[in-house]
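As the next step, I selected for study a record pairing a protein sequence with its backbone structure tokens, which the following lines show:
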Amino acid sequence: MSAYLFAHFKEKFTPDGEQVYFGISKDGFNWEQVNNGNPVLESKIGEKGVRDFTITRKKDNTFVILATDLSLANNFATKYKGSWDCVNRQGSKYLSKWESNDLVNWSEQELVKVVDENYGCAWAPDIIYDEENQDYMVHWSSRYPADSDNFMAIFYAKTKDFKNYSAPTMLCKKDDTQIIDSNIVYENGYYYRFVKSDYNPAHIILERGKTLTGSYERMPAFDVEMNKLEDGQYEAPTCYKLPDGSWCLMLDFYGCEKEKQGYVPFVAKDISTGSFVRSDKAFSFPYGFKHGTVMEITDEEYERIKKAYPNS
């Protein structure tokens, strides 16, 4: 692989922001818009808005997008009464899904119900292939039960075909605060799990484990750089390998006006150290990317996307 695709949304006050946008890059650091910065897919069902994307290449070389079925532009002030607590408890139990053979021609949007009515909103899905069991794990954050004072935690379901899913199971929780926005990558026998902690610390944390759903250990070296950041202003980690073998962690900075929000990169030469260093100076993107996932693509796929979604 020698190029990258970033599936994301834009944080705006209008419904067009909560749709599927693509950014592309040849080096994972300098990003280009496609389709004149307009959506490449739009939500027509459910809440008619989608946020917090994940995209993955399946083992059969086809692709799937999953996203939170949520439109704050359409529903925050009305359905959810202007309350984030109401969104967390009463938001959609579904994920939006699209599939493709080529990253250009996409299936009709579907809604996948991953939790029952006892859960709160199903937030921020992510996908990781389980090397041991040879299936896919979809993980997300929810409150359970929805009407309780329990903190939001990370839950998962297993699937082989993205049509049939196992019952939701808790993956991890934090006893003193909620955790959200999990992202997991695999390297040399370890799974590395990034999650956003709301408190103690109020930033992203990194853990690693030998099995996907087993025990994980905290990697304190990661906290060194995170402790330099303003508390509670970064979320939505997405981690991927750069062409030179180092790892880039993107964190979504939301502590500013909506139109200026976007990602900040941190780089680790060796992910096993847990030591990531902020690396803004070599980074560029044409507008504010919001919560999404980076996936490696081929040169051919890169050119196909540019041709299908040209800029005027």
Notes: The chain has four helices and 20 strands. The first strand starts at residue 3 and ends at 9.
